[in-house]
Known about the structure:
Blueprint: H1 9-15, E1 20-22, H2 25-37, E2 48-50, H3 51-61, E3 68-71, E4 91-93, E5 96-98, H4 111-120, E6 125-129, H5 134-141, E7 145-148, E8 151-154, E9 165-167, H6 178-188, E10 195-199, H7 202-210, E11 214-217, H8 226-239
Parallel strand pairs: 3-6, 3-10, 6-9, 10-11
Antiparallel strand pairs: 1-2, 4-5, 7-8
Helix pairs in contact: 1-3
Amino acid sequence: MKCALTLTDVPAMALQSMPIQPITDDVRTTISEFYKQANVPVPAFGGQVDLRHLCPTLALKIGKNPKLIVFDLDFTLWPFDCDKDVISPYFRAVQGVVDSRYFPANPYPDVPSILATLYDNGIPVAYASRNPSSGSVKELLTTIPMMTSMGEKTLWDALPDRDYFHAYSTMGANRGKTMHFTALKRISGVEYSDMLFFDDLPQNIKYAEEQGTVAILLENRRGLTWNSFLQGLFHWRKVNDQQTRIPS
């Protein structure tokens, strides 16, 4: 099957759920040229290529990226309410991460590879949660592994430093995560318009957009996926009028 890889196809290919494609000479040549134009080392291909992993990396290499990507936690990075549905302490077991009762405490499937890709590409991230159990949340983040080019890390390691972690209730403030973003802007020096935000609650999205942040709603408790991440990245570039292009 011929693979005509163009940059505009990158998000579409992920959305079409075509992760595995046989390697033919034509496919090998096209992908290799794509890597070379992006100034990225060409990987060694075996009998097949996982487009789900190749394309997002290239998407980050080509075009301007947000200066800070902010993620909610509960029902965004993992499918539960931390410290309610799962209880600390957390451990790694054969079946993945488990809580004190050996209930599963794993993230959504694409989350580790997304955070690892951002880490490898030097794109800062922050966590902004209204979960008041910050100690339990931090423990879970330090337990969930991700595989980077530097070896195994955890989701906590994706943060530039601990000041990019904000987990506390804003009950009574009724302004979404305004307090979290105010703190992140002060700490990072990044303007709201240079941030990209992912959350599962409409009210948090509403207030983030009002302050000028591109915010992506993750619906139906499907959490963060490569599809939603790429949609968010390309939407941020469109809003900021940053064209995605192959360098000449």
